[in-house]
Protein: Metal ABC transporter permease
Amino acid sequence: MIQIITEMFSYPFMLRAVIVGVLVSLCAALLGTSLVLKRYSMIGDGLSHVGFAALAVAYVTNLAPLTVAIPICVFSAFLLLRMNENSKIKGDAATALMCSGALAVGVMTVSVTTGMNTDVCNYMFGSILAMSPADVKISVILSAAVIILFVAFYPRIFAVTFDENFAKATGTNSNLYNMIIALLTAVTVVLGMRMMGTLLISSLIVFPSLSSMRICKKFKTVIISSVFVSIVCFLTGIFISYEYSTPTGASIVIINIIVFLVFSLIERGREHVQNEK
Structure:
């Protein structure tokens, strides 16, 4: 086991993948609890498809992928929030429209220009080989910004997550903090697309939080547990991916599913013991 891990980290691309993956897992876990409790969990799925469309445009125009994807995803996140607040099309319907529309734009753009090349497929399905040193630098800087902003605004994020009306009554600008959550989510989704792929990145946001909610009841403990679960699942998944040559994103998601099922069984066991008392 130790020999395999040592060998794995001897490859620069694996080291880059682990650094970025741990940071993205941390960011996704921090945001996941708020998104799940606010019923915004599908926003990650919608933004990932928007990101794919943005990346397709970036490749066609020979622009830097992250330079194009991040602002477009941030704008789309704000648009989804505005639609939820003011439009007749709300919630899952708005996300589904954006999700399918963006994916169609991305596929059409690629099909009529360059075709489905390796770079585009890497973003769709994820690849640990796709991380360049420049990607690592950008990911470290943006991940640090996400973590710092989340910690700095944690009390307000907590308030708007649990009771937005009460937060407004106490003078909190709930719209501003909803926008901050959306902004941080958009950045996290774009950073994780290289690793997980656009089709699976939302699972990195949802699964750790849902698993932790099975056994933890306080907001802070759920977040701490989510971070631990997210990082452990990522490291286990990437190890399996390296050892057995399985897709990275799919391996990480399957480990998350197993953890979710185990935590659900623990919750059932607790409830059974309490009922017998």
User: Anything to note?
Assistant: The chain is about 85% helix and 0% strand. The chain has one domain: 1-270.
